[in-house]
């Protein structure tokens, strides 16, 4: 209520709830009745902010809302699914989203997963919650689970993608004095020089580092980008962290590689 009161001080706003099915991969499918209700709601608006449950903001909406100059999306990853960006551009309607609102916490999560992977903490946690004896002197000497216990400092780290999340992760990695290899076809060499990483091929990023982190966004081009061949290029004993959408990686091939004991 406090935030709403602040908002009312400088703008008149309306709110309406819609319950259209939300998908990562496709635009909302909306009945004609709901479309009519949505168009009626948007008439006379200067700006429109949408979130989960909203119908698609398309040319029909723009045509019925001549005053509309701004459309905002609160769920960044679904930006192109919920807004007809091309139609908005033609009408010179500005579109904004929150795609990078989660960049910092995702970068922190990636760093955490790197540290967990290098220490093999997942295996130890599962054994501990099972209530069995774990970590005895004999186990530490004989079991392979205790052989994998490494530090991040001085390691070689490969990043697939150097967008907002990747660049934040690069900052987090600096105190660990790692060597950074990055694959991103959209990053200029000048950025690599300024941030202190080596811009290289996907093959190098997969095959040479001690840690490989996938940070690529899910697009038609990146869907299935890490298939069986790519997964088997990751060197034995390396840590693989995926903070991209699952569809970027061939999960079946990844499980196959893990079940092989590698």
UniProtKB/TrEMBL annotation:
Ranges for domain D-isomer specific 2-hydroxyacid dehydrogenase NAD-binding: 113-261
Keywords: NAD, Oxidoreductase
Gene3D superfamilies for the chain: NAD(P)-binding Rossmann-like Domain (3.40.50.720)
Oxidoreductase recorded as keyword: yes
Family annotation (SUPFAM superfamilies): Formate/glycerate dehydrogenase catalytic domain-like (SSF52283), NAD(P)-binding Rossmann-fold domains (SSF51735)
Keyword Oxidoreductase: yes
GO MF annotations, alphabetized: NAD binding; oxidoreductase activity
Pfam family, one: 2-Hacid_dh_C
Family listed: Belongs to the D-isomer specific 2-hydroxyacid dehydrogenase family.
The protein, known as: D-isomer specific 2-hydroxyacid dehydrogenase NAD-binding domain-containing protein
Organism of origin: marine metagenome
């Amino acid at each position: 209520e406090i935030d709403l009161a602040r908002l009312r001080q400088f703008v008149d706003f309306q709110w309406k709830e819609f319950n259209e099915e939300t998908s990562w991969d496709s635009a909302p499918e909306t009945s004609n009745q709901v479309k009519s209700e949505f168009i009626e709601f948007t008439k006379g608006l200067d700006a429109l902010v949408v979130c989960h449950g909203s119908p698609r903001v398309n040319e029909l909406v723009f045509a019925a809302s001549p005053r509309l100059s701004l459309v905002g999306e609160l769920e960044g990853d679904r930006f192109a699914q919920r807004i007809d960006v091309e139609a908005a551009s033609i009408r010179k309607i500005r579109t904004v989203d929150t795609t990078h609102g989660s960049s910092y916490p995702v970068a922190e999560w990636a760093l955490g997963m790197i540290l967990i992977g290098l220490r093999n903490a997942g295996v130890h946690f599962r054994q501990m919650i099972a209530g069995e004896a774990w970590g005895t002197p004999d186990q530490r000497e004989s079991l392979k689970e205790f052989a994998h216990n490494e530090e991040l400092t001085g390691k070689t780290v490969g990043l697939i993608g150097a967008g907002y999340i990747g660049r934040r992760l690069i900052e987090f990695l600096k105190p660990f004095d790692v060597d950074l290899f990055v694959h991103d076809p959209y990053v200029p060499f000048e950025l690599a020089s300024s941030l202190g990483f080596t811009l290289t091929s996907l093959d190098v990023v997969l095959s040479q580092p001690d840690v490989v982190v996938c940070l690529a966004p899910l697009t038609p081009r990146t869907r299935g980008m890490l298939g069986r061949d790519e997964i088997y290029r990751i060197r034995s004993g390396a840590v693989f962290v995926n903070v991209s959408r699952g569809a970027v990686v061939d999960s079946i091939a990844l499980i196959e590689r893990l079940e092989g004991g590698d």
